[in-house]
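We modelled the chain as a single entity of 648 amino acids. Its sequence is:
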Amino acid sequence: MIETTIKINGVSVKKITLNTAIIGSGAAGYNAALRLTDYGVEDIAVITEGINMGTSRNTGSDKQTYYKMNLCADYPDSPKAMAQDFFNGKCVDGDNAYVEASLSVPCFLHLCELGVEFPVNRLGEYVGYKTDHDPRARATSVGPLTSKMMTECLEKEVMKRGIRIYDKLQAIEFIKNEGECVGVLCLNKAAMNEDERFVLFNASNTITATGGPAGIYADTVYPLGHAGASGIAFEAGVLGKNLTEWQYGLASTAPRWNVSGTYMQVLPRFVSVDTDGNEYEFLNEYFDDIGTCLSKIFRKGYEWPFDCKKVMSGSSIIDLLVFRECVLKGRRVYLDFRKNPYGLDELPYDKLDNEAREYLENAHACFGTPLERLQFMNMPAYDLYLNKGVDLEKEMLEIALCAQHNNGGLDVDMWWQTNIKHLFACGEVAGSHGIYRPGGSALNAGQVGSMRCAQYISAHRENPLCEGFDAPAEKAVVKHIDLARAIISDTDNLTEMSDKATKKMSEAAGAIRNASLLDGAIASAKEMLKSFSETVKIGNAFKLWQAYRLRDALISQITYMTAMKEYVMAGGKSRGSAIYTSEKGNVPAKMEETFRFELDTGDFDSTVLEINFADNCKATTRPVRPLPEGGGFFENVWREYRETKNIY
């Protein structure tokens, strides 16, 4: 690793030359660093906006799931069976699915060896349970903070090995030479003056592990410290894949946290409050009988992601009812764990459907208030909010229908390399999932993808440190010197502009999508991006990083919403976690025409929609890469392995 300082337009810029730059200090980024050193690549560094920021460190649920191949006697399993289940999620590339299945066990055991305490029985088996879209009880957990514990254990090992971490650096542009990535330009968030503001990394390889584009929505459960950096990848020409496919679900807004699992299974009271302070138990008003209402609330726990197929007769009608209260009626919605629904001292458990009743009976939880049931069934879920400053015993919990996870992202091959050579993507920023995915599979995907990046990079170390860096790097620095100078002003409208952009995104392109609103939101985002240096102003240089977050979000918004619009124009209908409103189809009982929609017919299940922002947001459709056969005759595989490690 070589550090020098160069002058560009009179401004001092630090330049760091190395083999691999890893952007992101979450579970995927740290694992990429560890795997590289495992494979003998030492000339690396981790770049992060903030070591304690990011989704994997700061999110969870009532019992955050990690998905891996079954390692318990209950269910027979295999890589091919697991890959098939991933592939069945639709719009999934088969090679990504097979690799995520094949490497799930070594990646899982690597975490165990680093100290993540996944539970075992007395025989040493890693026991599991079924999660959503999971036929073989592959799920496991260490509690509400699984990904946090993963990140901390990985980070501990990174620190132990002395891997260099550059903190407080925000990636703002990938540097390209002749179509290949040769490094990245970063903004120093801690800079005291212009001569400290920019840092260049000249890297033979760059891995982006920056998480999902959390900053594009107003209604989001992503942590406040995480925004993502998909925009700079799109700007560099990386293809977007399956950008239409998200997961939305009910979440608390302060703190931002999923209210899945036990939070729903204890049957809390849903309350909306209007501007005059009047309270409404709106679920009671909608459902005709108490048994149906309570059963739907219970099912919302493990059917937590909003699913348009579960609207007409399933639990996702609750998501729409919350959305209606918030958006159409302008009310605030809360969960109240202090009182039972319908104002009852004792709930009529005999009126629940069999599944809900048997679950609560088996858990010995047919008593008391929702809070008492929560504390009895899952005390850590209660403590989690208490530790975040919210005592569910004393106050209601505000919720909304929020963006939670992007199943799409940057298009990657079977080695998690993007279409830009030497630029890799792993973790949520990489779009390896389709319409549906088993709960917890994202944590597995991040570990597998980062391992694959490292395998490929280590096997192709014959590449010299990238040449042709200085000219495109200088051009990028000049561009951002000018941009920074233009937006630093005596006035400050950054919060106003950011709120405007994210609210339009949530209104037009959340779980409920409307073609005409999409048109308006796309036009608004394009105009704001086009006039960014003239219209966006910050009061001091220390807010530059926030302005760059907005710029990145605008690029991502345009790319994502264009994908949604292209899907509708091609005849796409409601699928997965999104309703596209329509004049045809069905509207749920007692609901407004706003919610009329047609279900997808499966015409696009075997295709991938790609978007190229750098080419005027050009959209193309390709068939999914098929599911590989797998296996192979041992002697042939062994010979190839000795020659190439089968990395090509």
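As a brief sanity check on the tokenised model: Residues 488-623 form a domain with the Methane Monooxygenase Hydroxylase; Chain G, domain 1 fold (CATH 1.20.58.100). The first helix runs from residue 27 to 38.
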